[in-house]
Protein 1
Amino acid sequence: MADIYEILRGRKDQSGNYEKVPVIVQGITGTFGSLHAKSMMDYGTNIAAGVTPGKGGQKFEDKVPIYNTVKEAVDATGSKISIVFVPAKFFLDAAKEALEAGIKLLVAIPEHVPIRDTMQILGVAQQKDAIIIGPNTPGVMIPGLTKIGIMPASPFKPGNIAVLSKSGTLLYEISNTLTKAGYGQLITIGIGGDPVNGTRLIDAFDMVKGDPTLEGMVIVGEIGGDSEEILAQHIIDTNFKKPIVAYIAGRRAPKEKRMGHAGAIVMGNYGSAESKISMFNKANIPVAKRPNEVAMLLAGKLEKSKD
Amino acid sequence: MRLLEYQAKELFSEFGIKTPRGISSNDVEAARKHAQELGFPFVIKAQVPVGGRGKAGGIQKCHNQDEFELKYPQILGMSIKGEKTRAILLEKMAEYEKEIYLSLFLNRSKRCYTIIASAEGGVEIESVKNQVIREVGLGDVDPKVAEDVAKQIGLEGRSAEDFVDMLQRLSKLTIEKEAELAEINPVALLKDGSLLALDGKVITDDNSNFRHPEMAKYQEKTELEERAEKSGFTLVELDGNIAVVGNGAGLVMSTLDMLADNGGKPACFLDVGGGATTESVYEALTLISKMKKVKAILVNLYGGIVKTTTVASAFIKAYDDKLIDLPVYARLMGSESEKSKEMLKGTKTKMFDSVEDAINGVVMEVSKRG
């Protein structure tokens, strides 16, 4: 599997800082795309090119060149990362175009992408050894280095904790409490709230776990599916020892109702909070009852791990 | 979209999957005629978007006119697990030897479709024993795979042939209608060895609705849910009296959990989406104003870039316009919160720095009012 740190960080320069890798924005001239392209640039992300068919040759914010196709943008910038802002019904074509042009990390922002389209693009991604994050993701971030997504900058601070989350706003909320408690983030990945995710919790875990500076992890799950259970089993099987804390949203949600996210639905016992919490407990991972409890539980775990 | 049984069976018929003869209705006048057409005996089946209706008395045999006059209105007026009966299906009974389980199901973690079949159907999937499970990628079922599954659940001769045919038709339905689940439970094995779909459950991918205008007739939404959707919100109506509003599905679920943990009863789940503007919050309050059961509103907004003053002005406008007269307990995370608190002085909206404090406040307020 492609190494997400390598893709996001690029090479180190002489003073030991990572060079800023170039990122392409598909749909850079749309309302949403342009707003967040600007916000990413403000954060320091190297937005090297935009793509909007028919607007090739123009410039975004007077400096970022716009191309008609992803291929042209890749040829001009050498970028391996693209963030996609097109409407859901055009996602499949935009994503295919990106992967065929050699993109290795595709951050898929749109909500409401049909599951069949996601499954189709995953087939292509597998052939090309590319990572898809999302759809319906807030994005991925290495605080202090790069922000590729729609998250606000304020909750995040550089540090050594990885945060993996199905929910966007809970990712911000929980990262904010971590930051306030002095736990900055090494990397944060929004998995997305869809039933089928390009990067599942277990994939995200495997992507981030190997960094030597990683000190702990926070998993923010929610009702629906069984990706939390599978991750918990994987943690048991691989005997992963670094401190992990979890939070699960939707404990009190009624069954068989979709709670805002396409994927947040309990069918019988499949997808229930009880099932997830009991599996995390089995893996010796404490589950916070409130977002505010996460930092405290993590502090306890980190303290113990020093013994 | 979760189809009712009779709707799922309409799709089955369209794709050539055999079902018992049946007619759906939602008034007794029409149903009387249907009863004559079908002839007694038949089964009266409540059409509800939730499982377990058999145990709840939502499926009853009907042998004659007297039973019909008694049972039809009773089942039509029934609520099962909080879901009102939407319609009634009158269906001929089939004599059968055996009940089989069959479904095509989207396995979210494996990111592929899965055939689940068993020689022991008729119970909920969790209790189905000796499941035969086959992964089939995007849902296309090769005849060889179908034959193999038929063999594994012990079918032979005509039954095996019928099963292969049924499974392939179910696969076609799943792909063409973009279903997350297409389940026939039970499949009846009749005396002559042929198969019949006695029940049907189909859940399609809401995000693919735009490609399926033909399915719009099955869409069932309340007026409020429809209005919420037009604004880009998600609304789920619940039984309690405290409306829960926030931005982002995870955050609203989390707020609802904490409220219920503290003894509060949520009246709705209202997710206004990623951002929060004066307009979106005002529209959310408009929706809530139409829910008579609501006694108070709990708001939890996390805005990294949102000015809380824009949200505060939505509350003030709602009171000024006499849209709402309800107390609002709000936690607004964002900039200019002191200024917002100042703006809201003298109104029925109280602002808190933590969601826990807002929840304690709203639960006390509602219990005080009784």
Note: The radius of gyration of chain B is 25 Å.
Protein 2
Amino acid sequence: MEPHYPLFYTFHFYLFGVIALASALAFVTRKSPVAAALWLVNTMFSLSALYVLLDAQFIGVMQVLVYAGAIMVVFLFVIMLLNLGHPSEIADRRGLWATLAASAIGIILVAEIMMIGRGDVATKYEVPRGFAADQLAKYGAVGTVARPLFNEYLLAFELTSVLLLVAIAGAVVLGRRRDGRAG
Amino acid sequence: MLAESLALSAALFVIGVVGVLIRRNAIIIFMCVELMLNAVNLTFIAFARAYGAAGQVFVVFVMTVAAAEAAVGLAIIIAIFRHRQTVNLQNINLLKG
């Protein structure tokens, strides 16, 4: 059964949800890559607020630091480096048929999601605000994530470090000039 | 709030998919992929609230992989730009044969 949420909570949830959705729409429709990137940053900030509302404070902070702070800055760096800041004179959008196909696929995806939603996934699995809140009270925001991360998922965590090493090496190799000059 | 989170996450994912399909700028397509990853993260967080912290740990992993993917992907885009002086995918069809 649906637990009761205070109006304050619901209001902010919907507020940030609408901001995230509107920014995402603005993001895919902007012509200029810089404007698109900034709208995407806005989406990520609203998502981080939603994470905090969903009792995942540490992930909310990570979202701001890693996604908005690091990944999007790298994107903006590359846009700046390649001088792509202005909308390109060649048509960036695909033609009418591609747009129609994309809309059709989008509508099919939404319809599928609605069908899944009708099987009352939400009401079936909704639990009272408690589980995450309990963990939060017991271990704190960081401990909630850190305990499973360094116990059950320790091997995956170590493998992640190998992945990052490979990514660093790959980025350096790919970004290097072939003719041996510096830079 | 689970139903609302799932609906929002689905909507964001669909926006990402449509973005990938209708744009030709490689960097914007790449950012659409990031948007899709973010949408999935929201699902993880929403379910983590009901099922325990494993969902949050998964989000940490997704973020790490997204960072690695961004680094390698952008390096590839830079390498392509050096060769072709463009990131418009219409002009990049080496694999078409």
Note: The mean pLDDT of chain B is 87.
Protein 3
Amino acid sequence: MTPNPYLWLVPILPLAGAAINGFFGRRSSKKAITAVALAFCGAAFCLALLIASEFSSASAPYYFNLAHWLRSGSFQVDFSFYLDQLSLVMLLVVTGVGFLIHIYSVGYMWDDDGYYRFMSYMNLFMFFMLTLVLAKDYLVMFIGWEGVGLSSYLLIGYWFTKDSAAAAGKKAFIVNRIGDCGFLIALFLMIKHFHSLDFTKVFEQVNAWPTETAGAGLLTAIGLLLMVGAAGKSAQIPLYVWLPDAMEGPTPVSALIHAATMVTAGVYMVARSSAIFERAPMAMVVVAIIGTLTALFAATIGIAQTDIKKVLAYSTISQLGYMFMACGVGAFSAGIFHLMTHAFFKGLLFLAAGSVIHGIGGEQDMRKMGGLRQYMPWTFLTMTIATFAIAGFPPFAGFFSKDEILWKAYSSEYGSWVFWLIGVITAFITSFYMFRLWFLTFFGDYRGTAAQGDAHGHDDHSHGHGHGGPHESPWVMLGPLVVLAFLSLIGGWIGIGGRFEHFLAPVFQSGSAAELAHETAGEAAGTGTETLLMLISVSAAFLGLFLAWTLYFRRPQLPARIAASLGGLYQAVAHKYYIDELYNVLFVKPLIDGSTEILWHGVDQNVIDATVDNSASAAREVSDTVRHMQSGNLRSYAGWVAAGGAVVIAYMIWMGVWVR
Amino acid sequence: MIPLSYYLLLSGILFVCGVLGFLIKRNIITIFMSIELMLNGVNLSFVAFAAHWHALSGQVFVFFVMVVAAAEAAVGLAIIIAVYRTRETLNVDQVNLLKL
């Protein structure tokens, strides 16, 4: 443990930017707002780079204790920050991708009226996200956790005058609350049994705990509750429903929050709690199953979506499923590896999609795109790299991380061939729907109208300049695309030869040194198998490309016919398996009806309101009768005084008689 | 020697006469006199008790009451004259507003 006094500056810098823009942005020029937002975010990134350059595995983990916070008996929580290999990866991803997306936002949001508000929210998000990844204990992490939820809510509902955006923001917030409830209960359990929320102290005690192989115990309970929280934040079954709706937010938000950083917080949290999960095999299995199912389930929905951002949203859910699958089979470093490469290529995909949407005036329906390759060559080039990366073609980033996960799903002691098989099928579907998007958007003929745009834009931002037709985006937007494309291309290479895994090893090998030995033995035996499995997954990706090429490039009339012949099944997929409708009937409607009938009409109106109303009207009725005494006639008052005096005297006389 | 209860009875009768006069009569001067009657009824009981118990304090109190009553008579009559000058009536039922 080495103190590092610069740690707290990293989150504080974006907070300062958010405060300055939030308080003074309304009256500042757009240039000043841009300068503040980019300077503070960029400073955080530079500081992160500086910290990373001084990072050495020998002196890690670093920490910095900013202030005491809570003290209650022996229980104590500090505002302290913590940096080990895991948080370093997250720190660089969050600040790096976050900074690029900030630059992009300048171009994308320039013409929006609430520009200062947007930039302020984005900086605020950076603050909370950095608090989350740099926290030294679960409670500070929870602050960041809730804070990113808040920023997410604010940014999804950024165009709050649009009903659907406001509703999507609320949905995201409420669904996340369900997950947070589980997370909180896990924290309470830790306080009760470990008397601390500090990572080091908790894991120290967990490591002394026996592995819960036979049945479920405390650690299994904590693990499952943490997974509930992670499922909410990272959009896993059954709490994934908010993420597709979250696409109502501006596209840079979708890229930053709902693809690259915030939604991966759940993966980070599970990886951070690896000590707990490693001693609760049952919780691990649940995590793996949820991840695998989500990966497959969301991928199938992605096939039939027509909104370009919805496809990417379901793809994000599916890729997050991969990460949980990796965590569930004990390959935490593979999950984090995929988290990192996913931040690159999915951030890029969203930004490129945003560039497309921007370029054709706010249209998001892929059926009205097509042929954009010639209009926006840079967007096309970068999107192509990202598409190949997510589909898992070597040597792009996604190949290395996805292959690592699939291999671990097959070979790890928690893994099984079932996970691997579903993973490969998902990889095939991923490749298919991503190339479907690619072909529909960039190939064929342009299917939109030339003047389309401002009047009925999905994204509701009114461009100042006129729209003659599809056009390439300005360089302030293309720059980040190019950088991210470069990262999507080479980002996976750091994983070659298990370097990334060895770098993260000190974080995850806290409990079991035996696993390391097991792993090296497995690696030696499995090289042949690994190559075979790799070939299978790459050919799955090629198959997806080929199928998409056939259906959407060579014979574009075929998909409609297939959809018609599938009938009900296609309808179910296109309508997202009616999950939203199911949740409506199962949870939302009973809750609303119960609240209306019992709580509103029953308790609120008939008990609480009735008590107040009736006591008021009773007071009025009594006063109504008594007020006649106050006639304004002086002699009647005197009469009352005399009568009162007479009554008192009579009473006293009678009492006197009675006493005697 | 006349028993104490006779004095008290007379005092009570005087007081009640005062009260009734206060309540029933309409003329301000009569009402004013009824107040004096009540005061004197009380004074009577004071002196009666003072004589009975041979205590001076009761008689001293009566002097106080008389002084206050005299002052009150002076102020009260002045008010009554002022009322009559402004309203030209001494009927209390017609003098029910402070505002002119």
Note: Chain A touches chain B through seven residues (CB under 8 Å).
